[in-house]
Amino acid sequence: MQLGCLKRMKLARRQTLFSLSVACLLIGPSVRGQDVLLQWHDPLSQPASSAAEPRSPVRFVWEDEEFDETSESNPIRRTAYQDQYPLSKDSEDLLPHEDHWRRVEEESASEITDRFANDEAPWIEWKKTIGTATWIAPNTDGLGVTSLDVRGSLEFPDFQALWFVPRIAAHFLSGSAKIDLPTQLYDTSFETIGMLPIGERWFVQAAIAPSFFTDSQNTGRKALRLPGRALAFWKYSDTLTLTGGILYLDRDDVNAIPSAGLLWNPNADWKFELAAPRPRIAWRFSHDDESARWAYLVGEFGGGTWAVRRASGLNDVATLSDYRVMAGYERKWVSGRGWLVEAGYVFSRTLEYTSTPEEIQLPSTAIVRLGITF
C-alpha cells in the first residue's frame, strides 16, 4: 500500500510539472504584442548597403537593451537560479530575452586566423561570475538548508554560438540527523551550450552538463549525472516568442520535464516569462542611463539528487524536492554588474531514498536568496 501511495505521489508531481508547462503554452495564443521591443534579423543576412564593407569575424555581439529603449534587440535569455541543474544566468538558458541581441558578421577563415595570430583579441575569455546564497529556514522537526553557489561563463569572443558554464555549489544542512542526511552536500558541473539560428524566426539551443552530486563520502557512479536540454524558439510577433522542448534533469524523482511557454514584452517595463520550470513576471519600476531596478514574482521547482552515505554506512541516493514562490528585487548596471534579493515560501517538500519506498514529508517554510553578478 505504501509503495502504491508513493507511486501515486510521484505521478502527481510529474502531472503538476506537465500541467504548468501546458498552461504556459496555452496562454501564448491569447497574448498579442503592442509595442515593438524585439526586432528579429536573419543572422546570416547582410543589408545591401554593406556589400562593399570589409567583412569581420563570426561573432555574437551582446548589447544591453534595457537602458536604451530605442535600440534593436533580439533576446537570449540569461536567467534561472536552480538548486541543482545548472540553469544559470550565464547559460543563456530558457527563453529569449530583451536584454541582449546578437549580430552575426562574417569573415573568411584566413582573416580569422590572422586575427588570432596578431593577438588582436583573446580567443577565449571568462565573461561573468555569478554568486548566490540561498537560505531555507529550519523549523520544528524540519530541515534547514544553506546553499552557496558560484558559476561563470567561458565564451569565445569571435564565435559566441558555443560557450561553457562551470559551476560549484555547497549545501549545509541543519536538522538533517533526524532524517539520516549528511550535514553537507556538494555539486560540481561543467555545462556546454550551443545555439543555432534557423532562418528569420527560429533558433534552437542544446546543452549538456556532466555533473557530480555527492556528500563527499559516497563518490560512486550514482554521483555522476548528465542533465541537459533541447529547446526551440519561434518569434511569433515583435513582442511575443514561443518556446518548446525538454529539460532532462536526471533526477531520481523526475527524470525529465517538458518546457513549453512564452516570453511576452508588452513594453520596455514589463516581462512575462511563462515557462517551466521557472515562470516569472517582472516590472522595471525605475531606470536611468546607468542602471535599472526590477521587481518580480517567480516560481521554481527546486531540489536535487545526491549520492550519500547514511549513518549505518550504507551508500544510498537521496532526493530532495520542493516548489517555491518568491518575490524579488534586482538592480542591474550597464557594465554588467548587478545584485538581487528574493524571499518567499517553500512548500510540497519531500525527501526520498533509493533504498526505501517511503517518502518523507517535510514541513513548509521560508526561503531567502541573495545574488551578485560581476
Structure description:
The longest helix has 26 residues, at 2-27. The protein is built from two helices and 17 strands. Strands 1-2-3-4-5-8-9-10-11-12-13-14-15-17 form a 14-stranded antiparallel beta barrel. The protein has one domain (2-373). By secondary structure, it is mostly beta strands. It is globular, with a radius of gyration of 22 Å. The model is unreliable at 20-65, 67-82 and 87-109 (pLDDT under 50).
Secondary structure layout plus pairing:
Elements: H1 2-27, H2 109-117, E1 125-136, E2 144-155, E3 162-174, E4 184-198, E5 202-208, E6 211-214, E7 224-225, E8 228-235, E9 240-248, E10 256-264, E11 270-275, E12 280-287, E13 291-309, E14 315-333, E15 338-353, E16 359-362, E17 365-373
Antiparallel strand pairs: 1-2, 1-17, 2-3, 3-4, 4-5, 4-6, 5-8, 6-7, 8-9, 9-10, 10-11, 11-12, 12-13, 13-14, 14-15, 15-16, 15-17
Give a short summary of the structure.
The chain has one domain (2-373). Helix content is 9%, strand content 46%.
Shape descriptor reads globular
How many strands? 17
Counted up, domains total 1
Alpha plus pi helix count: 2
Order of helices and strands: HHEEEEEEEEEEEEEEEEE
Strand order of the largest sheet: 1-2-3-4-5-8-9-10-11-12-13-14-15-17
What separation lies between the terminal Cα atoms?
52 Å
Q: Approximately what portion of the residues adopt beta-strand conformation?
A: over 45%
Supply the helix-strand structural class: mainly beta
What radius of gyration results from the CA coordinates?
Answer: 22 Å
Uncertain regions: pLDDT < 50 for 5+ in a row? 20-65, 67-82, 87-109
> What value does the average pLDDT take?
76
Q: What kind of sheet is the major sheet?
A: 14 strands, antiparallel, barrel
